[in-house]
Amino acid sequence: MHRLFAATITAAILAAGPSAAQRVLTIGAQTPPSALDPHYHNTQNNNQIARMVFESLFELDNKVRFQPRLARSMRPLDDLTWEVKLNTAARFHDGTPFEAEDVAFTFARVPTVPNSPALFTSAVRSISAVEVVDAETILLRTREPNPLMRFDMASPVILSRKIHGPSPQTADFNSGRLMVGTGPYRHVDYRQGERLELARNTDWYGPVEPWDRVVYRFIPQAGSRTAALLAGEVDLIDYVPVQDIPRLQQDARFAVSQIDSITFVYLAPDAMRESSPFVTDRQGKPLPANPLADRRVREALSLAIPRQQIADRLYSGLASPADQFAAPGAEHRLEGIGPLPFDQARGRALLAEAGYPQGFRLTLHGPNGFFPSDDNLLQAIAQGFSRIGIEAQVQTLPPATLFTRATNRDFSIFMTYYSSYTSLIPLRNVVMTRNAELGHGAFNRQRYSNPAVDGPLAQALTAMDEERRRDLTQAAMRALLEDKGLIPVINLKNAWAGRRDKVVYDPSPPNMTEPRLAHPPG
Asked: Is the pLDDT score of 354 beyond 60?
């Protein structure tokens, strides 16, 4: 009887041991993914989830270094040919080997995902063929020289033609059935808009991950995220509310991690249509012409935004005034141009010059729960507009709804952001005239088109000489600034807060909240 009792206790301890020893990281994340399909929506909150389960050929780390993932190396053989050596040690979670043909399968799928708010087409736009040389070597043939190839190959993650083919559906990723990748974590469970659970992939070829299990809890309300951290319900939160940072910094239980980001917020006006859905006169009657199609009106809107006051008062220094359509420090941005002017009197004069001395009504759309104080930022912009005679109303929407409707051109002007280490990639994706075949303007939701921008951009996208590419990129940027095709607002600073006894977080310039950037203390 004693031996039986001892054996029972030993078995119970052994059974409980691994579970008790597990390291679990619970993250309070602001924005849930719009889908788990890794090619459905090219946005930060989707990509940070996808890259836990799936992998791209390369990955950019926090120091802007290209780290090998499913590729070990890449080199140009000539201006139109790149040789890629593949990581043949990689396996999908069910044991299926990663193979060269999977790259071709993935690149063919990327432009075809239906109903996507923003495809990854631009990343594969220049590739005319994927040639398999042997099991570990492929050649990427391009239609034209592509100086952004290394950045592009760090973008879409790779699927398996055997697991995911021939025509994977977004719904099958959301259900979990096709959430099978080569990444450091395996999919366990997903409840849309609520939580996602991942488990460490013990067969991953890379370094052992510190977390056995990761739970994302999606908490859009800023105050609720902080409350969850204070109550010990989560170990780490992203998008720390600006007003809560001093409190958390003064509490020895928590650590706040901050970094200058590569994220800039901008307004996208409907400059290309003769009429626009959310613009009327002061009495609510339709206008005979779309005022946003007039450059003077767009400049007036820019002049009405008190960027420095917003950065100082609304963000308490956790933002800076944006001066162009590129993040501070981005490759080939314009230097020495000075801040964008704030001049409400000049704004009123421009409206009168354009034929709107009494102003007009305008609805400004934007996200709620996409980045810190986004709803308050919309209100601050609307107040600036009202002071030059534009009666501005604000309507906020959940991010997934906002981007779907923006893609359908439902808005007169909307607010969003972009993150990039370069100036050329945002111009290619957001500003260039939309071309589905080439992937240009994938995020150009207002269908902006300007030959003075497109001309130098088209040349920059094939310029392998860096100095020439810089000059062409800057020429396109100047033309965009002059035309006010998009209106820069602020540059964001990123912040996370975590329990000191549980996690140390390496802050991410593109604002990724990932377990790979979180480490246990000590």
From this structure: yes
Average pLDDT (465-493) is 98
pLDDT band at 436 (very low <50, low <70, confident <90, very high): confident
Q: Which stretch of 41-45, 106-110, 454-458 has the lowest confidence by average pLDDT?
A: 41-45
Domain residue limits, the chain:
24-218, 262-493
Q: What is the length of the chain?
A: 522
Check if the beta carbon of residue 242 is closer than 8 Å to that of residue 314. Answer: yes
- CB under 8 Å to 361, separation ≥6 — which residues? 279, 280, 281, 282, 284, 390, 391, 392, 393
Alpha-carbon torsion (451, 452, 453, 454), positive or negative: positive
Output the DSSP codes for 76-89: EEETTEEEEEE-TT
Least confident of 352-361, 434-443, 472-481: 434-443
Per residue in 217-263, pLDDT tens? Answer: 999 999 999 999 999 999 999 999 999 999 999 999 999 999 999 99
pLDDT digits (tens, 9 = 90+) for 144-201: 999 999 999 999 999 999 999 999 999 999 999 999 999 999 999 999 999 999 999 9
Token duo for residue 259: 């970094």
Q: Are 319 and 493 in contact (CB under 8 A)?
A: yes
Cα distance between residue 82 and residue 138, in whole Å: 8
Contact 403, 325 (CB under 8 A): no
Q: Output DSSP code: residue 293.
A: G
Query: What's the sign of the alpha-carbon dihedral 199, 202, 207, 211?
Result: positive
Q: What is the DSSP letter of 244?
A: G
Fold topology of 262-493: Dipeptide-binding Protein; domain 3 (3.10.105)
Strand duo 390-397 + 360-367: pairing: parallel
Using one digit for the tens of pLDDT, what is the confidence trace for 303-344?
999 999 999 999 998 999 999 999 998 999 999 999 999 999
Q: Which CATH number fits domain 24-218: 3.30.530.20, 3.20.20.80, 3.40.50.300, 3.40.190.10?
A: 3.40.190.10
What is the mean pLDDT of the segment spanning 435-463? Answer: 94
**Cα R_g (the chain), whole angstroms:** 25
Q: What are phi and psi of 280, to 5 degrees?
A: -140, 175
- Distance (Å, rounded) from C-alpha 17 to C-alpha 36? 33
Is there a contact between 148 and 122 (Cβ–Cβ < 8 Å)?
no
- Nearest CA to 151 among 417, 428, 403, 416? 428
Q: Do 24-218 and 262-493 share a fold? A: no
Sheet containing 81-86: order of strands: 71-78, 81-86, 137-142, 127-134
β-bridge mates for residue 228, sequence order: none
Is beta strand 24-29 parallel, antiparallel or unpaired with respect to 213-218? parallel
Pair 487, 298: CB distance under 8 Å: yes
Q: Give residue 521's region: left, alpha or beta (phi > 0; psi -120 to 50).
A: beta
Q: Which two tokens stand for residue 481?
A: 């600034």
Whole-number percent of the chain with pLDDT over 90: 93
* Secondary structure letter of residue 106 according to DSSP: H
